[in-house]
Design goal:
The chain has 130 residues and is of the alpha/beta class. Helix content is 42%, strand content 26%. It is globular, with a radius of gyration of 14 Å.
Length: 130
């Protein structure tokens, strides 16, 4: 049974979370530097990922800007490299929500990126269960 990989796309860092084999629990993983994004392919193979989610940064009114365009281009690259379909999910407010929960100064941005990916994956898994 394959897992689900969630990615919080950023130009510097890619926040990473992955489900357990039963697709019940979302676990954050160390971020991947955008400069070494090929590491994502290794994760997909090592964890036998069958589904990939990428957070789509949209504006308050649901309008996609430059960041969303870059996230979609990254998704296309992932599909081409892995042969797995990519789903985009709205990540509005996710970063602010995590920062509120853990406190802005208590952790570095590197931790927040993967926690955002974990939160996106948790929400996705919950929707899939219902």
């Amino acid at each position: 049974m394959g897992r689900i990989l969630a990615i919080d796309y950023g130009e510097k860092r890619l926040g990473i979370a992955i489900s357990d084999e039963t697709k019940t629990i979302a676990l954050s993983k160390p971020y991947v530097s955008a400069a070494t994004r090929e590491e994502i392919i290794k994760l997909v193979n090592d964890y036998e990922v069958e589904e990939i989610l990428i957070g789509l940064p949209v504006g308050l009114k649901g309008v996609e800007g430059e960041s969303a365009r870059k996230a979609r281009a990254f998704g296309t690259w992932i599909e081409e490299q892995t042969g797995r379909a990519v789903k985009f999910i709205d990540e509005r407010f996710s970063t602010k929500e995590i920062q509120r929960e853990i406190g802005k100064s208590s952790r570095g941005r590197e931790i927040i990126d993967s926690l955002v990916a974990q939160r996106m994956l948790e929400r996705y898994l919950e929707i899939e269960r219902t």
